[in-house]
Structures are given as C-alpha cells and as structure tokens.
Design a protein that fits this description.
Residues 6-186 form the Ketoreductase domain. Belongs to the short-chain dehydrogenases/reductases (SDR) family. This protein has helices at 19-29, 41-51, 65-79, 102-130, 141-145, 153-173, 199-206, 217-228, and strands at 7-11, 33-38, 56-59, 84-87, 133-138, 178-185, 188-189, 215-216, 239-242. With 248 residues, the chain is α/β, with parallel strands linked by helices. A 7-stranded parallel β-sheet has the order 3-2-1-4-5-6-9, sandwiched between helices. Strands 7-8 form a two-stranded parallel ribbon. Helix 1 (19-29) crosses helix 8 (217-228). 48% of the residues are buried. It binds nicotinamide-adenine-dinucleotide (NAD). Residues 11-12, 14-15, 18-20, 38-39, 61-63, 88-91, 111-112, 115, 138, 140, 185, 187-188, 190-193 line the site of nicotinamide-adenine-dinucleotide.
Length: 248
C-alpha cells in the first residue's frame, strides 16, 4: 500500500464533492490515516467517520495560526507524527479587477496563501524531527492563466503566491528530508464550480480542453497520492498540472 500507516493531514477536506474529501478517501484506500480538517468540527468528524475508525476529523481554520499549531500538536499527540500535509483549503470570489476591495483581497489570500504558510509551519517541526515528510500545495490553473471562470484576479494572485511559497519551501526544507510540491487543477466539478456552469459555458470551455471533459475531484486526488507517496520520492519543487491539457 502506497501510504501504509502514514498520517496524512488534509485541510478543507469536509466538503462532500470537494478535492480534499476525495483525497482523504483515496489516501485511506491506500492505507493512510486521513486527518480531515475544516471549519466545522461536526462536518469534519462526520467525513472522517465515513472513512472508518482509523481516521479523524477536527475543526481548524487555516487562517488562524494558533489553531493550526494546536491541531498539529493534537495530531502528533494522538498519532505520534505527521507524514503528509495537503494544503487544500481555498475560496474563490468571481470579482472583476476593479471590484476587488481590501476585504475581498484579505479573505481570498488569507485562506490559500496564509493558510498554506500557517499549516505548513505547524507541521514542519514534527517532520523535521523525523527527517521525512511530503507537503502538497493546492494552486490552480488560474495562477498560470491569470484568471479563471469562477476565481477573480485576487484568486489568481493567491494561487500564484502558493506556487512561489511552495518552491521556496522545497528549496529550504529539502535538506531536512521534506518534499514540497504543488498541483494546478484546471476546471474540476466540485462545490466551488458545481451548478454554476450553463450548457453554453460548458461547450465553450470544452473547446479549450484537449481531453474533452471537465475534471473531477478524483483526478486531483490521484495527483495528490503521487506527490504524497514515495512514488515521487525524488520530486520536489514541482508543479503538476491536472487540467486535461488546457495549457498546451
Ligand atoms: P470546496 O469548496 O469543495 O472545498 C474547499 C474546502 O475548504 C471547503 O470544505 C471549505 O469549508 C474549506 N475552507 C474554506 N475556508 C477554510 C478555512 N479558513 N480553513 C479551513 N478550511 C476552509 O472546493 P474544491 O473545489 O474542492 O477546492 C479545493 C482546492 O482546490 C481549493 O484550494 C481550490 O482553490 C482549488 N482548486 C479548485 C478548482 C476547481 O475547479 N474546483 C480548480 C483549481 C483549484
């Protein structure tokens, strides 16, 4: 099993159709202990319970540094270590450039960019002690294309920031045995996108996707599995596109 007994923390993983939830499910199938973090404790616990008794769900707002540190301590107290962190929590706001206010900028950058920093800082000391760990950061094709259908320019900025932060972390943490990589999903059918696409929009979007379909959460979960496990043991600082060929 690719993740046998590995303790895998996934942020923003309670949403039913989400990428984080699919990742927690796939990690569990491959022998990992999935720790589901999200804003709502009951939702996170229910999502973990669905996976079986080896798994846990806790409340953690990734924009709150003290909460990230506290949950990391709790996980290490209970399981003895953290092997994998997937920084998946993120929000979008479909705003035009001139409509972005300070509160919009803060909200979107806080979850993706500050959250990635805080949660990574919370687990890295534990990974360092064991000289081993894999951190996966969820960026977006919006970072590469400068905009998407549902995310505004501030979302692109946040997700481009994630790419830079992840590369810098990979450079600094490599000597400690910690790998850090990013994933740039294209258009994935989840709650962020679900129900908002009209047939006309879908037809137009598919013209730009050589594989001729939208992605699903499992497509991204499989990329997370590769980057979390030893399959990618000599890969760090990389960016893995999961977009059906959108950027070719
Ligand atoms: P989703 O809305 O289904 O899941 C996001 C989860 O993050 C939710 O469960 C939400 O409760 C949680 N969350 C929000 N703020 C949080 C906070 N402060 N602390 C902890 N958790 C918080 O969305 P998704 O489509 O599964 O997106 C997952 C990630 O993938 C996001 O980072 C998103 O930006 C990225 N992404 C999604 C797509 C797509 O097309 N769906 C494309 C590219 C990138």
């Amino acid at each position: 099993m690719l993740l046998s007994n590995k303790v895998c923390v996934i942020t923003g993983a309670a949403s039913r159709r989400g990428i984080g939830r699919a990742t927690a499910r796939l990690f569990a199938l491959h022998g990992g202990r999935s720790i589901i973090l999200d804003l709502d404790a009951a939702q996170a616990e229910a999502a973990a319970a669905e996976l079986g008794e080896a798994h846990r769900g806790y409340a953690c707002d990734v924009t709150d540094k003290a909460a990230c540190v506290a949950v990391a301590e709790r996980i290490v107290g209970e399981f003895g270590r953290v092997d994998v962190l997937v920084n998946n929590a993120g929000i979008t706001q479909p705003l035009k450039f001139m409509d972005i206010g300070p509160e919009n900028y803060d909200a979107v950058l806080d979850v993706s960019l500050r959250g990635t920093l805080y949660m990574s800082q919370a687990v890295v000391p534990h990974m360092r002690e064991r000289k081993s760990g894999s951190i996966v950061c969820m960026s977006s094709v919006s970072a590469q294309r400068g905009g998407g259908i549902f995310g505004g320019p501030h979302y692109s900025a946040a997700k481009a920031g994630v790419l830079g932060l992840a590369k810098a972390m990979a450079r600094e943490l490599g000597p400690d045995g910690i790998r850090v990589n990013s994933i740039t999903p294209g258009l994935i059918q989840t709650d962020i996108t679900g129900g908002k696409l009209t047939d006309a929009m879908r037809t137009e979007i598919l013209k730009g996707i050589p594989l001729n379909r939208l992605g699903d959460a499992e497509d991204v979960a499989r990329a997370c599995l590769i980057l979390a496990s030893d399959l990618s043991g000599y890969i760090t600082g990389a960016v893995l596109d999961v977009n059906g060929g959108m950027l070719i």
